[in-house]
Design goal:
The chain folds into two domains: 5-167, Aminotransferase class 4, branched-chain amino acid transferase, N-terminal domain (D-amino Acid Aminotransferase, Chain A, domain 1, 2-Layer Sandwich), CATH 3.30.470; 179-345, D-amino Acid Aminotransferase, Chain A, domain 2 (Alpha-Beta Barrel), CATH 3.20.10. The protein contains nine helices and 18 strands. It has helices spanning 14-22, 63-67, 90-104, 111-124, 201-205, 208-216, 263-274, 286-295, 332-345, and strands spanning 5-6, 33-40, 44-52, 70-72, 75-79, 85-88, 136-145, 157-167, 179-183, 221-225, 233-236, 240-245, 249-253, 278-282, 298-305, 309-318, 321-324, 356-358. β2 (33-40) and β3 form a beta hairpin. It catalyses: L-leucine + 2-oxoglutarate = 4-methyl-2-oxopentanoate + L-glutamate; L-isoleucine + 2-oxoglutarate = (S)-3-methyl-2-oxopentanoate + L-glutamate; L-valine + 2-oxoglutarate = 3-methyl-2-oxobutanoate + L-glutamate.
């Protein structure tokens, strides 16, 4: 079993922690500790430890600054009513992290190290897991290259870390509120043969200017089309997309090497099948999506991801106009799938698929 050395660290007072947990926001405040593991080409993985949360000391020539050689993950720990804390499908995150690292030329972290780093950090920072409605401890494992050189080659020195952030709703506010999506015609997120299927910062950096474009047009999320034909819907800036039809189907773009395989996405496909819906993974043209919304054959659209869970889409917009989904309010299927998923995560429903694992 992988073991971590625990280092003494300053911690927040109970009152300071309570103030954060009373209104955690999303991804802005952090727990007392972080998990670290080092890797070098000579020693492999070593120095597994839990230390106080704090800054890294990096050489200005560290490879991550110049060539973006890094990868990351996102998952959550959930407090259950009996006081226990559980994680959701972390093994899937660990496998995806390996695929991302492989694509970025980074060393692959063993699955057991990934899971142990998460469990050790959550255990020591158990008191940072919030207990409010749909609140959780968001966990961010990440790996970055730190060799101090300016040559374009894979780093021989790497750090892996996990930090934790008590979090509430990703989009803020109360209740489940629809978001509007802007489909950009000028920018693409990823191209075939690139890093689109990997979870790495470069993909998100590529989406920032189009996210600004979306916000300038009154939308909170940007949607991307394929880089070859500029016709087919792929994913949003940070979420996968689903469509619900009037004849009991649920459609999501088929995975390619330009689409991130979302952990929530695959869970939704299973839950939709459980609910008697016919799940389709296929190419979905933006023209088909807009026409289906306008005709009413596509009755609901929603986005999904670890941070945002399942978020209904109220309208689609691009340079040619706006298209309201249904009556613009969250749909019954969307809300039903969302409730089913969160009930499993928070221990309110039977976990028939074995997705949850108790940490403490």
């Amino acid at each position: 079993m992988t073991s971590f050395t625990i280092h003494d660290a300053p911690v927040h007072t109970e009152d300071e922690r309570a103030a954060v947990l009373s209104d955690p926001g999303f991804g802005a405040r952090f727990s007392d500790h972080m998990a670290l593991i080092e890797w070098t080409s000579e020693e492999g993985w070593h120095d597994r430890r839990i230390v106080g949360y704090g800054p890294f000391e990096l050489d200005p020539a560290a490879a991550v600054f110049h060539y973006a050689q890094e990868a990351f993950e996102g998952l959550k720990a959930y407090a259950h009513a009996d006081g226990s804390v559980w994680r959701f499908r972390a093994e899937v995150n660990a496998d995806r992290f390996q695929r991302s690292c492989r694509r970025l030329g980074l060393p692959e972290l063993p699955v057991e190290d990934f899971l142990a780093s998460v469990d050790e950090l959550v255990t020591i920072d158990r008191d940072w897991v919030p207990t409010g409605q749909e609140q959780s401890l968001y966990l961010r494992p990440f790996m970055f290259a730190r060799s101090p050189f300016l040559a374009v080659k894979p780093s021989t020195v790497v750090t892996y870390a996990v930090i934790a952030s008590p979090s509430g709703a990703y989009f803020g506010g109360s209740g489940v509120q629809p978001v509007d999506i802007w489909f950009t015609r000028d920018f693409t997120r990823a191209a075939p043969g690139g890093t689109g299927f990997a979870k790495c910062g470069g993909n998100y950096a590529a989406s920032m200017v189009s996210q600004q474009e979306a916000e300038a047009n009154g939308c909170s999320q940007v949607g991307f089309l394929d880089a070859v034909e500029h016709r087919y819907v792929e994913e949003l800036g940070g979420m996968n997309l689903f469509v619900v039809t009037d004849d009991g189907r649920i459609i999501t773009p088929a995975l390619t090497d330009t689409i991130l395989e979302g952990v929530t996405r695959t869970a939704i496909l299973q839950l939709a099948t459980d609910a008697g819906l016919v799940a389709e993974e296929r190419r979905l043209a933006l023209d088909e999506l807009v026409e289906g919304v306008d005709r009413g054959t596509f009755t609901e659209v929603f986005a999904c991801g670890t941070a945002a869970i399942i978020t209904p889409v109220g309208s689609l917009k691009d340079a040619e106009g706006q298209h309201t989904v249904g009556d613009g309010e969250p749909g019954e299927t969307t809300l039903g799938l969302r409730q089913r998923l969160t009930d499993i995560q928070y221990g309110k429903a039977d976990d028939i698929h074995g997705w949850m694992h108790r940490i403490v």
